[in-house]
Amino acid sequence: MTDTVEMIHEDALPGHESKLEPKPEWQPRYPGSGRLEGKVALITGADSGIGRAVAALYAREGADIAILYLLEDDDAAETKRIVEAEGRRAVTIKADVGSKKMCERAVAETVEKLGGLDILVNNAGEQHPDEEITDITEEQLQRTFQTNIFGMFYMVQAARPHLKRGAAIVNCTSVTMYQGSKELLDYSSTKGAITAFTRSLSENLIGEGIRVNAVAPGPIWTPLNPCGGASPEKLEHFGEDTPMGRPGQPNEVAPAFLFLACEDSSYMSGQVLHPNGGTIVGG
C-alpha cells in the first residue's frame, strides 16, 4: 500500500455521507468555550460520520484540524468547509492509515501546515459483515486489521516525536468489543485489540504527560453501515436493540472525544467512554 491505486477498495466502504439519507447529524449542539484554543488536532476518518462531528466540535472549541480521509473527496471538502466556518484552519490529507508511509506523510504535512500536533484522534475504521467465520477471506481479515489496529500503531509512531507534555490521544473502539458481534468477527476482534492498545499505550506514555483514552460508540448513523458495513437485515432495525431503541447520531458521540482531548479529563488516562444508547458493559 504505497500509492493511491493500492488504496482503492473493491467494496463501497467507507461510503459517501453526501449521498446518505437521512443525513447524519454532525452539528455541535452548544457554543464553544475555548477548551481547545490554539491546539492542532489530526483526525483520521474525519471526512464523514463521527470523524466529521469531532472535527466540527473541536473547531468550535478553538482547534485547527487536519482531516485525514481515504477516498471521499467531496465529503472531505465539506468537513474542511465546516471547520473553516468556525474560524479555524483546516487541511485535507488523502491517505490510507493502513500504510505506514502514508501515516508518516500525513503527520509531517499536519505539522508543516498547521505548526504542530497536540491531539491525535484515531477514528478511521472499516467493517464487513459475514454470517460464518469461513466466509471471511484472508484478504478481508488482513485488511480489517491493517486499517483498524495497524493504522493506529502507525499513526502513533509517526505522531510520537511531535507530541509534548499535555498532548492527548483518543482512539475509537466499539461496543462490539464488550458485547461481541456474531456478524462482525474480524471487526470486533480489532476493537478488542484497540482497547488493549489504549490501556497499554496509556501506561507507556503517562510518564511523559501524554494521556491516552478511547471512546466505544454503539450503533451510530454514519455512512459505514448503510454503505456495506451491515447486512440488509441488521440495517432495517439498526439501533433498535439498544435500551434507547434507536441509533445514535455523530454529534451525540463527539462530546466524548472532546472531553478526553481537553483539560476537563486531566485526571483520566487508559479509560473508555461509552456513548451507546444505554447498553451496560463492563470496562
Automatic annotation (TrEMBL):
Tagged with keyword Nucleus: no
Alphabetical UniProt keywords: Oxidoreductase
A GO term, aspect molecular function: oxidoreductase activity, acting on CH-OH group of donors
Biased composition (Basic and acidic residues): 1-26
Entry keyword Oxidoreductase: yes
Record InterPro entries: NAD(P)-bd_dom_sf, Sc_DH/Rdtase_CS, SDR_fam
Region of interest called Disordered, as start-end residue ranges on this chain: 1-32
Similarity comment text for this entry: Belongs to the short-chain dehydrogenases/reductases (SDR) family.
Name of the protein in its database record: SDR family oxidoreductase
Organism of derivation: Sphingomonas gilva
